[in-house]
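Help needed: design a sequence for this.
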């Protein structure tokens, strides 16, 4: 069936209480790292793209702040790495955990052959503002904030766009040749499209709270393993974001023990921050994050594609989820830009085989990394959380990481994922 997709987006008659209907070529739901980078890449390649983000800004409580070497290399290809590095950031050159038996460095980026042998730590708000600001230079890009997608438009089995709601409840329609669900772990698009993810439940949850920053504090991030406890701090420049890992399902028990028990446990883990815990007075200041991991058997159907966490929820282990979402975006733009432009000019539907090609290229790297994350969860994190003995990294792991080639391979996988990707020129 032919589609009428004119550019730039234009208004057509609205129906069913919908205020207006706009047309575009690609409608991306979700302005996280995956959605924002895909929007920028498609806009650069001359595809009409509309990015819909449910929130009024990019500031969110649960946001990873890492930009991996692979993402820096992608930005370098686009001429955007240097401008990004002008924004406030810190650099993490290795991942060192302080354990009761001494420091343990499972990942050292120093030996990687890359211009960016470090993780750039930057509030994700700054990163997303930077990417969308860049995309706004293209007249074929449109960003709509406070636009929460509620429904998919489906005609004869093909997804033809979405209906979204603004704050005051006003409803709007965006009709598109391709709708991309980049709406994260709780993806509504995934559910509306009828995809059922295969879930694995990592053996942990995370408590998330803020601690004040003081002058003279170190920069960057830190991770600590204690007796049955794991925790860490992320530098958000104005404050510290604290994460405290607990065995799955033990939150009610911890809560019943009172906030003082949490403060004491965290103070034991990171004693130099003990005085800051005074700031924690109430459980209202603490959020529980249920850690999940999953993947959809199928990431596409006619007119629709899922990328990033919407297609495969990544556990926080190794902090690779943002990297993977952006790599999905790069592959989707590489594969789909030309077919989208062709379909747009010929007023034809997009061939579903192009959507299948995106999943084909990204599924194996995703499955491999999720398997590795599960292994670390089961072999390292779960025993550490369940024990009241001082944590010691498994002897085999220490031994393997002494072999230079294996040590470099670990750093390479964290930095670039299992299958590095580049933007097709
Ligand atoms: C506690 C925690 C810490 C983590 N730390 C790291 C880390 O340090 N490094 C790392 O790489 N990964 C980390 N991860 C994983 C990482 O956050 C995800 O893998 C990554 O954010 C996925 O990116 P995305 O673009 O697919 O989705 P998201 O980043 O989840 O973005 C989805 C976007 O869609 C929007 N949205 C949702 N529903 C709708 C709707 N109906 N309509 C319109 N918009 C909608 C949301 O507001 C959001 O902006 C962490 C995860 C957790 C839970």
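Sure. Designed sequence:
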């Amino acid at each position: 069936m032919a589609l009428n997709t004119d550019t730039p987006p234009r208004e057509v008659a609205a129906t069913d209480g919908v205020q207006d209907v706009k047309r575009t070529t690609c409608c991306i739901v979700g302005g996280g790292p995956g959605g924002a980078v895909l929007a920028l890449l498609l806009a650069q390649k001359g595809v009409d793209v509309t990015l819909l983000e449910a929130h009024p800004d990019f500031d969110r409580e649960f946001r990873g702040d890492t930009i991996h070497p692979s993402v820096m290399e992608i930005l370098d290809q686009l001429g955007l790495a240097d401008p990004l590095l002008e924004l406030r950031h810190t650099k993490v050159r290795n991942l060192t955990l302080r354990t009761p038996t001494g420091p343990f460095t499972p990942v050292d980026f120093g030996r990687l052959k890359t211009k960016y042998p470090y993780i750039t730590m930057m509030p994700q708000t700054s990163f997303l503002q930077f990417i969308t600001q860049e995309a706004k230079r293209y007249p074929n890009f449109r960003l709509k904030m406070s636009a929460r997608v509620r429904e998919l438009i489906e005609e004869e089995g093909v997804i033809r766009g979405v209906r979204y709601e603004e704050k005051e409840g006003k409803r709007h329609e965006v009709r598109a040749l391709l709708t991309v669900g980049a709406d994260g772990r709780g993806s509504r698009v995934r559910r509306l499209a009828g995809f059922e993810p295969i879930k694995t439940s990592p053996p942990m949850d995370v408590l998330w709270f803020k601690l004040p920053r003081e002058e003279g504090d170190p920069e960057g991030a830190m991770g600590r393993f204690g007796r049955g406890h794991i925790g860490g701090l992320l530098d958000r420049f104005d404050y510290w974001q604290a994460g405290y890992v607990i065995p799955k399902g033990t939150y009610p028990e911890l809560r019943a023990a009172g906030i003082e028990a949490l403060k004491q446990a965290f103070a034991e883990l990171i004693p130099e921050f003990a005085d800051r815990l005074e700031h924690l007075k109430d459980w209202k200041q603490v959020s529980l994050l249920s850690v999940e991991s999953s993947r959809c058997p199928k990431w596409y159907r006619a007119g629709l594609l899922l990328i990033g966490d919407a297609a495969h929820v990544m556990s926080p282990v190794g902090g690779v989820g943002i990297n993977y979402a952006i790599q999905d975006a790069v592959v989707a733009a590489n594969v789909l830009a030309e077919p989208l432009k062709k379909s747009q000019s010929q007023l034809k539907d997009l061939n579903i085989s192009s959507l299948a090609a995106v999943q084909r290229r990204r599924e194996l790297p995703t499955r491999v990394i999720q398997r590795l994350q599960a292994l670390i969860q089961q072999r390292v994190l779960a025993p550490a959380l369940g024990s009241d003995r001082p944590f010691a990294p498994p002897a085999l792991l220490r031994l393997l990481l002494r072999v230079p080639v294996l040590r470099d391979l670990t750093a390479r996988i964290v930095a670039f994922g299992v299958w590095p990707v580049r933007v097709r020129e």
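The chain has a mean pLDDT of 90.
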